[in-house]
What we know:
Elements: H1 15-24, E1 28-31, H2 35-47, E2 54-57, H3 62-68, E3 76-79, H4 91-100, H5 110-127, H6 132-141, E4 144-146, E5 149-151, E6 164-169, E7 172-175
Parallel strand pairs: 1-2
Antiparallel strand pairs: 3-6, 4-5, 6-7
Helix pairs in contact: 2-3, 5-6
Amino acid sequence: MLAGEVLPADIGDFTPAILKLKKLDPDIVYVSSNIPFAVAFMKQAKELNLTPREFHCIHHSGVFRQPLGDAADYVVGQSYWEPGMKYSKPQRFLALLRKAKIDVDDYPWSPAYMMAFEIAEAALGQAGTLEPAPLMKTLKDLRITTIGGPIWFAENGVGAINTYPSQIQSGMYQIIWPSEVATGKHIYPTPAWDQR
């Protein structure tokens, strides 16, 4: 919570940590936690009027946003994909979500699974075999654009599936960087609770 401070996962009262943060008047409060922890923290941050210039909660998906309502607005986090990304062609992905009755708000990792599927499909199609050596060579040479953007693999096999910084604005997620995929502009500083 504070630099070097780790709070227990089952904490019920964030008051001491929030009061410390208020005294520090931080630019950014960065919450690296599971969703229930982050939701509870944000509820108490609002109650106690903690007003940093920005809240960053790493998991700020629909299951974070829904219980917070407008208290989730302006929170920055990460997204694999959001509607309107400039080079995204999500028709197939959205059709699969509809068929499976999956809401991306409830399953924020589903775009990453779709990217992995697109990679596997392209690699298998290009390699034409399940033999490990040619398949690995194909993967390392692979350059495709998935719903989440360009994908490639380093020589050691590490891939380029990454999340994008996104911000909740009026209940919607906006990719705020990089500019070539951004769907909105970063709003900073966050308005104080009583000015929203």
